[in-house]
## 1
Amino acid sequence: MRERIDALAAWDELDVDAAALPSQAVRLSDASVIDALAEVTALANHAGRLQAVLAGVASQRSRREDGHAGLAAVRGHASPASLIQSITGGTKAEATRQVRVGVSLLECVGAPHPGGGLADDRAPAPPPWHDSLRAALLSGVLTSAQHDAIRGGLGEPAVDDDTRDADAVRDAWTLASRGLIDEASAMPVEELAKRARTMRDLLDPTGAESRFARRYESRSYRRWIDADGQRHARIAYDDEMGLWVDAMLAAALRPRRGGPRFVTADERAAAEKLQDDPRTNDQLAYDLLMDVLRAGSLATAPDVYGARQPGVRVITVDGITGPRDPLGRLLGMGHAEDGGDALPGSVIDRNVCVAGTVRVAVDPHGNPLDVGREQRLFTPRQRLALAARDGGCRWPSCTRPASYCEAHHCDPYSEGGATDIDRGILLCRHHHMALHNQGARITRDGLGEFLIHPPGGGAPSAMPTKAAWKWAWDPPPPPDRRRWRAG
């Protein structure tokens, strides 16, 4: 830090009172602005590391078991983050991150007594799996934000107490952290955190299923009216629908977002028209979403049902996606073509069932060698037949109409299942996802009833048609008239 301060002193324009800094800094040359900014950033990173360490010490001395005698409580704060925020004047999120990084740096160091020495006589624990992250931060290779992105993204190794290969699992997390350290300087912190989450999901596909399911359960739409009468809304997307909306907005706004060049005259004209549109990007996005909602609400069932699925391609690698967990879910990960978001095996299963696959062969360097033909899907005519037979989602108690349903292969398509009407069944998106996520399965013996088998065994339940006109092929029994005149 002293070296950085001395380096900054070389610019006379900056060696002034704080009140004069703006008027003096504008006199710097372009090269000096860049060099001085680099020195200030390095100094800030050094200070950030020291701040994180001290925040970790403060947190260590504010343990729950210390009660009101803890450092934060003595200072009148309910948590170490609150204490740090009161000192730094920053945001709660920033104070929480400083505490989180500091605690990670101090792991396995031990809590010293105020008079010196360790808090107990135990030998120091072996270095944690993320020790390379700590070393990279303290040596200046990583910033506190980069450390937190990698550490938080990777999470903890998926190790059970009785796992025999626990050391191998931790080694995998260590190697992943080192690889991310090497990549950190070449990407923004947000992308680094995303890459770390993707790496975690690849290392722990079973945990990825659980994390995906939690995010799906957290989906929500909330609206309110403020004091001025303006309506607001907040949406929490599940992974798939978030990607779908992103793809839709990207397709509509790509001329403004540096998308691909437009070759034809019509494309160039449309791009120029969008560029000259006086609306902001946020206003354009809003108007697009409203147009989509309006079109969906006014369309008839044939217009909506059987529509092409959103343009989100999922990429999987042969050999990685193969075995299944005890619930029958695919153990493996796929990736969204745009952005590389990790998607768990249940999503791959469901999308293969709905949208088919295209097989692409590549060489050892990833260069495409051959693109196969798209597999056969349920055709629009088959979907109409399914709608006529099923009348909507056949999941017990579900009332979603056929126009909101997807065609599910009872015999998994990835395992050779046929795209035949008698082996397909309509499910709404929610129950189709639940089927793949929870490990339930649907069977049918010939042309008999569709049966849903709960995960983990148990008696199957029938899935009768929801069609109001089912009497045409399954007439009710004639009424029993024997007791009409009784009494």
Note: Residues 113-119, 304-310, 363-376, 479-487 have pLDDT under 50 and may be disordered.
## 2
Amino acid sequence: MALDLDTDRIHQLLHDGVRDKVYPGAVWAIGDSLGTTANGTVGVLDPERPSEPMRHDTVFDVASLTKLLAVWSTIGCLVEDGKIQLDTLLGHFWAEVSGHPLAQVTARHLLTHTAGVPLRANLKNLYGTDPQDVRDGVLREALHRPPGEAVEYTDRAALILGYLAEHLSGQRLDALAVDRVWQPLGMTQTSFGPLPTDTAARCAPTELDDATRTHLRGTAHDFSARLLGGVCGIAGAFSVLNDLATFLRYLLDPSRVSEAPGFGPDWIKESLQIHTGELTPPRGLFWHPAPGTTPEADDIWVHYGFTGTGVWVSPDKDRWAALLTNKLYYTRDREPLTHVRNTFRSLAFA
């Protein structure tokens, strides 16, 4: 595998991103089910502290990768425990949503972003700041279209599934993720924030916080996560390259771990295939085909985080890749990083 990786081009691509201020810095790795084949770092942790380079153990606000690390994985545990059937209407087994529009939605709808729930979170504006009021509001909200009609990415899908996982497990989402996924896999540097001061010091800063006039570091950028105390299905998790590599490696060969998490090969295989029929864009369960690829020809699946993070996995190619940046330090504009991500993917899976 190592022979066909053009690491010089990867380094040049990522260095150009630093030069062009797409992000202050990045860490990356590519590997297979046996381990990491190639990795590297570019740029600096914080442009205001130019003597501090990005490091392999830099902590990143992984944003929507939380949907994989904490929600997709724990829902997989609950499916394999027999506590959730993907096509059973939520109203049949979840009293909180019975009699409300969400009762007609299934877990599969939520995992494929076809539930028809509102596209924007807007939690504070709609429901206030009390976490129970937010939960009640989200679980009782009207749908904006019938379930199964369209694929529309929305943070609410993961928020609702996070609430469902808490309901069925009797644990808060952060404790559930630790117990069933992160601890068994040895992901010791993955946690929800806010982070302790010493850990936050090696965290890549994200967007400028209007309230403090400093860049967020160790506190989730995502407003919904902050509103809910740092823990929710949308975002809020922090991690490091090595932990993400461990997670991705497990997806390629679940048999190679000494202590397995609560989800296994059945959930992985189920998730990395299209569940949306003729609807576009095509979706697996939270994962989706990488841009410019097809499941039949390429089998490369991806998920991104708004802060500038991304992970890819391909069972057919026995390969995974991770690219972690803090592009949000500079801008919310998606386009510059989109080019870098797609080129990185093409080099990683050449």
Note: The longest strand covers residues 35-43.
